[in-house]
């Protein structure tokens, strides 16, 4: 009688926690890229777990932003006429929502990533930067349906992609990704040592929605507070990212895109965007170094 060797038994969470701590692994974002197969598995498992047990599954990722867009359109443009004097205010609003969603998902998800994956971190020798990076990629995956929902009405209103607009949108996403990942790295390792850091991150992201020209135009800041305050306002990198994506999508839906950009967008948009993106990458390098100095103590604190 032939016998077959039993396959590897699956370990429960309790069994994983009973194992000794994993030996230290090579660290750094470059090591995360080198182990992109593990990164891809982690991203896929995170996405699957979000829709586990649902009937519609991934359809929710399109349905929810579509309903959100319709609600904001009805509330701001039909009910209270918030877009009076501005063409296609709903597009202006939803374009900002896309980039703000990407940032808050990256920041909050990255902050919680080490604590939520304690069993893997303490038992497997993997670069721990992989977990905030995975949450950024998951946030990007869930932002794609929102982009689709944004593009459909834009095309209906006459928008066509132009090189300058696409460069602006790409720069806005690059700035947001670098900034969100840098903060995710810093706050994730801080959250291991003091869980209040996670609450701080959630509180900070609540301010983002109201500190960017999304539910109101940038020109309103100029009119109410004057040029000096408006200049300080533009030091907010997320305000810059929102303006960049609005340049990529919203202005192209108006009857005169050049005039719309001249009136409702600040001067030197690309210059500020490039400078802030460079600063965000410098912050990312510093965040990774701080993370590397503290991560050796992460398993025992988890």
Provide a compact summary of the structure.
The protein has 14 helices and no strands. With 302 residues, it is mainly alpha-helical. It has one domain.
Explain the overall architecture:
The model is unreliable at 1-17 and 19-24 (pLDDT under 50). It contains 14 helices and no strands. It has one domain. Helices cover 72% and strands 0% of the residues. With 302 residues, it is mostly helical.
Topology (SSEs and partners):
Elements: H1 13-18, H2 29-34, H3 36-50, H4 60-79, H5 89-116, H6 118-123, H7 130-156, H8 163-193, H9 196-208, H10 218-233, H11 237-248, H12 257-264, H13 269-294, H14 298-301
Helix pairs in contact: 3-7, 4-5, 4-7, 5-7, 5-8, 5-9, 5-11, 8-9, 8-11, 8-13, 11-13
Keywords for this entry:
302 residues, 0% strand, mainly alpha
> Order of SSEs, N→C?
HHHHHHHHHHHHHH
Q: How much of the polypeptide forms β-strand, as a percent range?
A: under 5%
Reported for the largest beta sheet, the result is: none
Could you say which overall geometry the principal axes of the C-alpha atoms support? globular
